[in-house]
Amino acid sequence: MVTVNVRDNNVDQALRVLKKKLQREGVFREMKMRRDYEKPSEKRKREKAESVRRWRKMERKKRDRDGF
């Protein structure tokens, strides 16, 4: 569950925080994916691409941390 506190009646700030939290949780991506039907082959292709992207990002961070 996502909760956001409104401080000093600043609703705009609270909305920005809420959008960030929802994006981090992947709610917007989930809504976009559920909007249209995705064929199983397209789903496998997308998940494989996401996996490769995560792996490359992890390797890049590891390389930067180790100083290569």
TrEMBL record:
Biological source species: Micavibrio aeruginosavorus
Highest taxon above the source species: Bacteria
Protein name as it appears in the record: Small ribosomal subunit protein bS21
Family membership noted in the UniProt record: Belongs to the bacterial ribosomal protein bS21 family.
Gene Ontology MF: a single term: structural constituent of ribosome
Annotated GO CC locations: ribonucleoprotein complex; ribosome
Pfam families: Ribosomal_S21
Record keywords: Ribonucleoprotein, Ribosomal protein
GO term, biological process aspect, one: translation
Renumbered residue ranges of the record's region Disordered: 34-68
Recorded name of the encoding gene: rpsU
Regions of compositional bias (Basic residues) in chain numbering: 54-68
